[in-house]
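Handout, tutorial session.
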Amino acid sequence: MGTGTGTGMVRGVPRTVRLLALGSFFNGVVSFTFVYLFVYLTGPRGLSVAQAGVLSGIGGLGIVAGNFTGGGFGDRYGHRRALLTGACVSGIVLLSLPLLPLPALYCVLPLAEYATGVVRAANAALVAVSVPEGRRRQSFALTRFAGNGGFAVGPPLGALIAARFSYDWLFVIDGVGTLLYAAYAARILPARGTAHSRPVHRPDAPGLWSELRARPAVPVLLAAIVCVDLVYRQQYSTLPVFLADHGHGTQFYGWLIAVNGGVILCLELPAAHALRDRAPLAVVGTGLLLVGTGYAVLIPGAGALFAVLMMVSLTLGEILYKTPATAYVADQAPAHAQGRFQSLYAGASISGQVLAPPLGGALYTTAPALLWPACTVLACGAGVAVLAARRLREPPRTRPPYGGYRGAPVRRPVRRPEDGTGWPGRAPAG
């Protein structure tokens, strides 16, 4: 596993996770409708900009709600069932959306986005229950790599479909693709007798908040992720406005976003492999500080070099914090609450999609000179809080037993034929 090659970095990832990553790539390719939703609403649907903004905002609330609650369904009914149900609902709604009258969109669009959020949370929980505690970073990095790779292909493909045919076809193809993804997931995830399919609902188990109080570093991390996601997603809302106000066109902004995607695709897997033995909160805290540093680069000026340096720092911070944070929350979760812990992280990690545009836009409108200093302070403060959280106590059982950070004892996993996950002592997690 220590070869440093792409094969070496993926060799230790369980087969189920590699198959889930392949599905995430395909799902990322066809999930292009949200990119063009605003254009679709103001174009073929004839809504005003304000109306389209309200409808898009309602949809955004739906996906955040789905992320926050989807893992709970998995804990109670099984993560496989939650993923398949969410994907089927999302696919059917997307297929029907072009045929529905405009008033119906205010109900069905949030439903489709909610189902998409459930799929995202369930997918994260499925990765968590497929990999032993302390060895999850590379698995989460692989699924993120696959999803980002699919997203790199999807939007250009969507633009081609919209130009050659119509925007309605985007929803049809997205819906069919999502249903195919559900069929694929049903095929690769065993239907019975595995951690993927058996719920771990225990009426006598401690509640979610009791479990969080027993792990005080987790709430600190979740709060920090909400803060940094509000900052991170300014690149999709106020940053293009800021660049335009300083003489940079849309093409320059597009190249900046390409820098972000390219660096992630090139470095995320190698970084996860190289840092797999480092203490997770130290890596996450450093990543959050890099996000804050990136926006600090914009304080003295808006030149092209400043903007590129900002994006590089922001992207390196993203690589350092996103995968280790996801894996850390999974490692801290008790078996009966794995889905709910993943839902909390999934919801926190996408909260900026709803919070960033209105809050960043309001600050930039009233006091534009304060936006980037405020982003810097917020992200760096989140990073300092996470670094300080390393001193908080953790339940003994949650410390990675397989060498998840430097100095931890190493034990070899033993394949258990009854569940095929290749690691011992794990209660089924739904």
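The second record follows below. Compare its token runs with those of the first.
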Amino acid sequence: MESFSLILAIVVVTALAFDFTNGFHDTANAMATTISTGALKPKVAVAMSAVLNLVGAFLSVEVANTISKGLVDETGIRPEVIFAALVGAILWNLLTWLVGLPSSSSHALLGGLIGATIASAGVGAVHGDVLVTKVMLPAVAAPVVAGVAAVAATRLSYTIGRKTDGKAAEKGHRVGQIASAGLVSLAHGTNDAQKTMGIITLALIAGGAVAPGSNPPTWVILSAGLAIALGTYIGGWRIIRTMGTGLTDLQPQQGFAAQTSAAAAILASSHLGFSLSTTHVVSGSVMGAGLGRKGGTVRWSTAGRMAVAWVLTLPAAAVVGAGAEAVTGLGDWGTALVAVFLVAASAAIWKISRRQVVDHTNVTGADTEEPAGVVTQAIAAVAPPPAAPVADGLTATIPAPASALGTAPAASPAAATPPAAAV
């Protein structure tokens, strides 16, 4: 039985708190398209995803071993370092959830760990080859591969279904979408739940509770699986809204193609031990599905904001992790100060989120549509108004909307005068 110190217990609890935020932050990865197309009711979707995340946590430990054994030097790590890393990861998760951006929880965790490790033991304590081959390269390649696969799968789905009854094909794709969403949830458990397992195992090694090179104990696997499942059931509705309707408009065929492509990429990465961002994969597949349908569109301004968040995730979490490590290095009171800061900042973010509540009742609301850009507004302002038929067979000009012109319509003397009787 492992021997626990107080700091080690704090690290384990904080790691499970991160796992919980990972769950509700990444619920959108599995269920956003299923909810947006109406294949499942929102609460049913998140409950199904929660159960399958828990099951997936028991299927593999390859990703957990990448984090606990390969990314940083185990011998130069103290439990306080891991605590500082988790602080950076949790705060970034909460900030991006608040603004509805599907950033990578995985990169937040890895960024926090890298920053705290460098602050504690120097750059040499980070294994650069593992960082590049199993973190950075998959981060770039995975969304591209998933996106291309989703484009091909979407076009294939529409081609196959072209000669079938429309309603029957749509029903079949909805059923397939439910199955593929379940597969994504299972894959998410095999990848993201293991990251917390790896970080807890690394803390246990650093604290002398288990031997170096050990696999995650059974209680670590179970607790990590339960934490991510609970977070998934809570539902990160803000990010579900962005992924489901803010990025593109999906039909059941596209939802099925996007989720199947994402699940295949995530499961393959888990098997190889790549610490993959499921957010990157699913986002890439959703955009690919949007482009794969004839006439489909992607809201590139939303995609651009997501890309900025992706680029900032790892360095931002690393900076916070390094700062937290510097404070914890001052002693027990420094660790207590960081813990108080984490709780206070988390509470403040939650309070701000209550100003505009997003939940299962309004996650697919009409206000998710992206506003028209300046180019669209300029074209509307100068375009000639359409012609409409009138009773005598001639045509009348329909005035341009006031919103397009940017001014209120002026009162016309002719409009106030009744029309003359026909003669």
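Points raised in discussion: The chain is about 70% helix and 0% strand.
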